[in-house]
Write a structure and sequence with these properties.
- The complex is a heterodimer of chains A (134) and B (484).
- Chain A is α/β, with parallel strands linked by helices.
- In chain A, 27% of the residues lie in helices and 31% in strands.
- Chain A starts with 6 loop residues before the first strand and ends with a helix.
- Chain B has two domains: 195 residues, Rossmann fold (3-Layer(aba) Sandwich), CATH 3.40.50.740; 186 residues, 3-Layer(aba) Sandwich (Dimethylsulfoxide Reductase, domain 2), CATH 3.40.228.
- In chain B, 40% of the residues lie in helices and 18% in strands.
- In chain B, the strands form five sheets. In chain B, strands 5-4-19-18-17-6-7-15-16 form a nine-stranded mixed sheet. A five-stranded parallel sheet of chain B has the order 10-9-8-13-14. A three-stranded antiparallel sheet of chain B has the order 1-2-3.
- In chain B, helix 2 packs across helix 19 and helix 3 packs parallel to helix 19.
- Classes of the chains: A alpha/beta (134), B alpha/beta (484).
- At the A-B interface, strand 1, helix 1 and helix 5 of A face helix 1, helix 4, helix 6, helix 12 and helix 15 of B.
C-alpha cells in the first residue's frame, strides 16, 4: 500500500467558544461532539497533505492516535501547529506524564497528521467503547 | 413575567453577576447580559438530563431509587482502601465542604480540577508569592493589560468587557470606540486595496499593507493598552493593540528576556522565542512606563513545557516590574468555582488541592497525591467524581484506571464519566436550581442564586454528599461494632 505523506506538527489543545457552548448544552449533545472532534490546521499544511475541509484526518502522537475532522484554521498563519479543542478526542493523544507535579502535558506535544479519508471518525460511544471497553 | 436580576452566572471564573433571567411557568425563557456559554447554560441546561439515580446492573446503567443508590455508593466508599474524590470546581463551596469531610471519613485522596488547570500556578505561588488585586482594581486603574497564554475571547468571553480594556473605569477609559474605529479603518483600507487591484495593472499595485512599515504604532497610543502573548493569533489577539507570537513551549525564555530588559541587561541575540529583540525592547518600555499594569495568564503557561517554572518566571517578572512601577498578576481560572474549591480545601486542610487523608491527617505532595498520578500508578481502588468529567478530560491512560475500579458520579448532566460509572446521581444545577457560594478568579466570594426549582426528587450536590456521608458513618459504626 502506498505510504501516505505525514506531516510533523506541534499539537496544542485549548478552549474554543463553540466547545464552551457545547459543554453547557451537555457533554453528550451533538453540538459538543461536533465542536470537539475537530482539528484546526493551517491552510498551507492542508494543501501539503491534500486534505480538504471537513475531511477526516488522523492525528498521531507517541501516546495514541485519533481520527477527527480537519478544519481550516481562521487563526493562520501557524504552519506546523495544529489546535484541538479539549475533549475526549484530544485526550486520546495527550501526554499523561505529569513531570512530578500532577499536571499532564496538554499543550505543545510533538505529533504527526495524515489524511484519513477511509477511516471513520468514532462517535463518543464508540470512542469510550474503544478506550474503556464499556 | 418575573425577571430575576443580578444573577451570578455559574459558568466561568469571571462569575458575571449582572445576568437578568426571565422565568415563565418555572422555566427560564430569556437571559440578558450573558455571553454565548452562559446563554447556552441558562437556556439549554435541561436537555440531556436524567432525573433518577442509576446503578450498573449486568453491565448496563438502570434507574434505581435514591436510597439504593446512596447505600451502594456508601458501600463502595466505605470498603475502599484508597478512594479518589475528584472534581469539585463546578459546585458550591458548601458542597465542597461536605466532600472534604467525606474524604477524611473514608481516608481517601481528594483533588479538584486545579490539578489539570492552574495546579502548577498554585505551586509556583507557594514558592514565590503573588502580587495581586481584585478585578475591580483592574477595571478602574489598569492602563496596561497583558493576556499571556490565555484566550479570554473563547474561555472568559466577558472578561475584557467587564474588567479590562472595554470596561468603563473610574480612572481609565473604555477602549471600545478606539477598537471599532481601528476595525473600520482596516476594513476600508482592505476594500480600497482590493478595488485598486481590480483597476490597476498587476505591477502597479502596492503590496497589501502590513504593520511592518510602522511596527509599533499601537504602543504609542494614549489610554489603556492591551497586549496578547500567544502561540496563535487568537480572536483576543486580534482585539489587542499588539500581539506577540511566541513559539510553542518557549514562554519561559520570553519571560526571562523581559526580565533582563527590565533590569537593563544586554541580550546578545536577535530573536527570543521567535520574537525580534527590538520589538521586545519596545514592549518592555511600555511595561515600565505604565502606571498600573496587570498580567492575566492562562493554561498556555501551565500546560506547556516548563509548567510551574513558566509561572515562576511570570511571577518574577511581575515582582521585578514592581521595582519600576505598579504591576499585578492574576491567573485566569476556568470553572466558576475552581477558586472556591482551592479556598475551601485550604480552610479545611491547609492545602489547596491534592490532599491525601490515608494517614488520617491531611498530607499534600503534588506529583504523588495528585489525581492523575494516583491513577497512573493505579493506586486508587474506587472513585467519586463530583461535577466534573475526568473521563473526557484526563489523558487516556489515567482515565482507563478510573474506569477499571468502582466509579460514583454526582453531576447534573450525563457525560462521558457518568456513562462509565457504576452509580450515577443526577443533581440540581448550582446557580440555577440551587443556592450556594462561589469564588471569582480574584478570590471575591459571590452568592449563587436559585432561579427555578429543581425537578421533583433531584437533590443538590451538598444534600447527596451529606446522605452518602451519613450512610458511610453508619456502615463504619456497624462494622466496628461487629469487630468489637
Amino acid at each position: 500500500m502506498e505510504q501516505k505523506s505525514r506531516l510533523r506538527v506541534t499539537l496544542i489543545t485549548g478552549r474554543t467558544i463553540d466547545q464552551g457552548v457545547g459543554k453547557e448544552q451537555g457533554k453528550v449533545s451533538e453540538v459538543y461532539r461536533d465542536n470537539v472532534s475537530i482539528c484546526y490546521i493551517d491552510p498551507s499544511d492542508l494543501k501539503k497533505l491534500g486534505i480538504k475541509e471537513k475531511n477526516n484526518v488522523l492525528v498521531l502522537t507517541e501516546y495514541g492516535s485519533v481520527v477527527v475532522k480537519a478544519v481550516r484554521s481562521l487563526r493562520a498563519p501557524h504552519p506546523g501547529l495544529i489546535f484541538m479543542p479539549y475533549g475526549p478526542w484530544a485526550n486520546a493523544v495527550m501526554n499523561p506524564d505529569t513531570h512530578g507535579i500532577g499536571m499532564p502535558s496538554l499543550k505543545g506535544i510533538p505529533g504527526e497528521i495524515q489524511s484519513a479519508q477511509e477511516k471513520p471518525m468514532l462517535s463518543l460511544q464508540e470512542l469510550l467503547k474503544e478506550q474503556f471497553g464499556k | 413575567m418575573p425577571v430575576v436580576k443580578a444573577v451570578t452566572c455559574p459558568v466561568c471564573g469571571c462569575l458575571c453577576d449582572d445576568i437578568e433571567v426571565t422565568v415563565e411557568d418555572g422555566k427560564i425563557v430569556k437571559v440578558k447580559n450573558s455571553c454565548a456559554m452562559s446563554e447556552s447554560k441558562f437556556l439549554g441546561y435541561g436537555g440531556h438530563r436524567r432525573l433518577k439515580p442509576l446503578v450498573r446492573k449486568n453491565g448496563n446503567l438502570v434507574e434505581t431509587s435514591l436510597k439504593e443508590a446512596v447505600t451502594k455508593a456508601a458501600q463502595i466508599l466505605a470498603e475502599a482502601d484508597y478512594p479518589l474524590l475528584y472534581g469539585w470546581s463546578s459546585t458550591s463551596c458548601e458542597a465542597i465542604r461536605v466532600g472534604l469531610e467525606l474524604a477524611e471519613e473514608v481516608g481517601g485522596v481528594i483533588d479538584n480540577t486545579s490539578t489539570i488547570c492552574h495546579g502548577p500556578s498554585a505551586l509556583s505561588i507557594q514558592d514565590i508569592g503573588i502580587p495581586t488585586c481584585t478585578l475591580g482594581q483592574v477595571r478602574h486603574r489598569a492602563d496596561l493589560v497583558i493576556y499571556w497564554g490565555s484566550n479570554p475571547w473563547a474561555a472568559h468571553p466577558r472578561h475584557i468587557e467587564r474588567y479590562t480594556s472595554f470596561s468603563d473605569g473610574r480612572f481609565e477609559q473604555n477602549e471600545w470606540k478606539g477598537y471599532m474605529s481601528k476595525v473600520k479603518a482596516s476594513n476600508a483600507r482592505k476594500k480600497f486595496e482590493s478595488a485598486l487591484r481590480k483597476v490597476l495593472p498587476k505591477e502597479g499595485v502596492p503590496a497589501p499593507s502590513t504593520d511592518s512599515k510602522d511596527p509599533y504604532p499601537a504602543l504609542l497610543k494614549q489610554g489603556r493598552k492591551l497586549i496578547v502573548v500567544d502561540v496563535r493569533k487568537t480572536r483576543s489577539a486580534e482585539i489587542a493593540d499588539y500581539f506577540v507570537q511566541v513559539e510553542p513551549n518557549k514562554d519561559y525564555e520570553l519571560f526571562e528576556a523581559f526580565r533582563a530588559l527590565i533590569l537593563n541587561e544586554e541580550i546578545d541575540v536577535d530573536k527570543v522565542a521567535g520574537v525580534p529583540l527590538e520589538y521586545l525592547e519596545e514592549i518592555a518600555e511600555v511595561m515600565i512606563n505604565c502606571s498600573f499594569g496587570v498580567i492575566f495568564f492562562g493554561l498556555g503557561l501551565t500546560m506547556s513545557t516548563g509548567k510551574l517554572r513558566n509561572v515562576d518566571a511570570a511571577l518574577s517578572l511581575t515582582r521585578d516590574l514592581n521595582m519600576r512601577t505598579k504591576f499585578m498578576i492574576i491567573p485566569m481560572r476556568g470553572h466558576f468555582n475552581v477558586t472556591g474549591a482551592d479556598t475551601v480545601f485550604t480552610w479545611q486542610t491547609g492545602f489547596p488541592y491534592a490532599v491525601d487523608f490515608s494517614l488520617a491527617y491531611p498530607r499534600y505532595n503534588p506529583g504523588e497525591t495528585t489525581a492523575v498520578d494516583v491513577l497512573l500508578r493505579e493506586e486508587s481502588d474506587a472513585a467519586l467524581v463530583v461535577a466534573s468529567d475526568p473521563i473526557a478530560n484526563f489523558p487516556k491512560k489515567a482515565a482507563q484506571h478510573m474506569v477499571k475500579k468502582p466509579l460514583i458520579v454526582i453531576d447534573p448532566h450525563m457525560n462521558a464519566t457518568s456513562q462509565m460509572a457504576d452509580v450515577v446521581f443526577p443533581s440540581a444545577f448550582v446557580g440555577i436550581e440551587a443556592e450556594g457560594t462561589a469564588y471569582r478568579m480574584d478570590h471575591v466570594p459571590l452568592p449563587l442564586k436559585k432561579v427555578v426549582t429543581p425537578p421533583k426528587g433531584v437533590l443538590t450536590d451538598q444534600e447527596i454528599l451529606k446522605r452518602i456521608l451519613s450512610e458511610v458513618r453508619k456502615i463504619k459504626a456497624s462494622s466496628s461494632a461487629e469487630a468489637a
